[in-house]
Amino acid sequence: MAEPPTGTSSHRAQAHGRHANHRRYHDGAEVDGYVDTPYHRVRRAVAARLVVDGVTGGGPVLELGCGPRGILDPATLPGPLVLADVAGTALGAARRAAGGQAPAVRLDATRELPFRAGSFVGLLAGELIEHVYDPLALLRECHRVLAPEGLLVLTTPNLAPVQDRLAFLTGRAPRQVDPLHPYLWLHIRPFTASLLRRTLRRAGFTPVALRSNEVGWRLPGGRWVASRRLARAAPGLGGSLICAARRQGTPPPPRNRA
Predict the structure, then answer these.
(1) What is the residue-averaged pLDDT of the chain?
(2) Which of 134, 135, 183, 185 is deepest in the core (most CB within 10 A)?
(3) What is residue 171's predicted lDDT score, i.e. its pLDDT?
(4) CA–CA dist 144, 100 (Å, integer)
């Protein structure tokens, strides 16, 4: 049997991933179950600080894939906040959590974003890029909707935190590529720090900061120990990668999907 055209197979893969993610995250319950844990509380706080400190100008800021509880506080931003997500129920919850003042746009981040070029001075995408089949296409769309020198902040789980690096030496796979994990199986494009920077540059961004939330280790008895100090010193070893990048120039043309 002949292989289907590349474009057809890639579109099917994107559709499958989109539907799987929507089933798990549509009502916001999954996110509500973890955002207040120390791990994610620190991740969200670090990302929000990078946006607040790095955005210049008074234009709008987009939080893409905001879920039911967005990361950004509209009161801390120099311009209006716009919330966006694929899940209508979660998006409504995020808008209420933001005081009902932030415009909310339901969209699919695997498609062209429904905004004009240069619409935003800042864009935050928390725990999103690892869920999409073609992260470079997503980043090119982020580049398009950002104004020149606009700031992009991404958070994504680290493929190579310290505990998984050592586990790999013993033949065990990193958690981010475990197809049997209850939710990490949806992380179809995991990143290391170096790969994330390289992908951002390919999409026309200049990385300006890399942070992490914690460097953690599970002891033999099951107790989890974590260090914020080590995460500041060596963010590439941490559990979450939190990267800020500036929009520069024009990205290369998209890959041929025919």
Answers:
(1) 88
(2) 135
(3) 93
(4) 27
